[in-house]
Specification:
The chain contains six helices and seven strands. By secondary structure, it is an alpha+beta fold.
């Protein structure tokens, strides 16, 4: 007989994951994330242009259409609050229904500049892998990076992702061609990693 009990899955060690809401505050937050041109230069294939509020509204809509689209927040300081300060956006992308048998998704992650360097991005990705394999029943998760973004590639490899493909000269940026890198992790690889760390599968915390 299972010993699992109802629990809140939307928490990790220091973070809380909540839905994006139709509020002025969330609209401004998404615009702040999307308006960080330095961050977008290391993550977006789109031609860099100043981010308009309309473009940010379209991205906010995209978040709601993902398999999992969440505002990443610090844990609340007040027990009466469901979540604390928003610091980032985490998405596990959706695919057409006809792709359902393949059971894979792709992660995108953005963290506000003032909160970078604290390990929040890595923590959110670790949690998203747990959610993908334990809650959504997926088999494979991928994440992409540009070859010049060494910080991202080091993080993904440290989290257990393996380089699966290299798209040569896939990105034109700052007057030069750069490769696009595809990283992936399979369910059994993640489970082996989780066991070695002595973690329980049923709940994240």
């Amino acid at each position: 007989m299972s010993t699992i009990k109802p629990f809140n899955p939307f928490r990790s060690e220091r973070l809380v994951y909540r839905a994006v809401e139709d509020t002025i505050e969330d609209e401004a937050f998404v615009h702040a994330i999307q308006g960080d041109a330095e961050a977008q230069s290391g993550a977006s294939y789109g031609l860099l242009r100043p981010e308009s509020l309309q473009d940010s509204r379209l991205f906010k809509k995209h978040i709601t259409e993902c398999l999992l689209g969440a505002i990443v927040c610090l844990a609340p300081t007040n027990e009466d609050e469901p979540a604390g300060e928003p610091i980032g956006i985490l998405c596990l992308k959706s695919h057409p229904p006809s792709w359902a048998p393949h059971r894979w998704t792709e992660i995108s992650i953005d963290v506000l500049k003032k909160h970078q360097g604290n390990g929040y991005g890595g923590e959110a990705i670790r949690w998203s892998l747990w959610w993908a394999f334990q809650m959504a029943g997926l088999h494979r998760v991928q994440i992409q990076a540009f070859s010049f973004n060494a910080g991202a590639t080091r993080l993904y490899e440290r989290l257990g992702f393996k380089e699966e493909g290299r798209l040569r000269d896939h990105l034109w940026f700052a007057g030069a061609w750069h490769d696009g890198l595809i990283y992936g992790i399979l369910e059994d690889e993640w489970r082996d990693q989780w066991k070695k760390a002595g973690r329980e599968f049923a709940t994240y915390i």
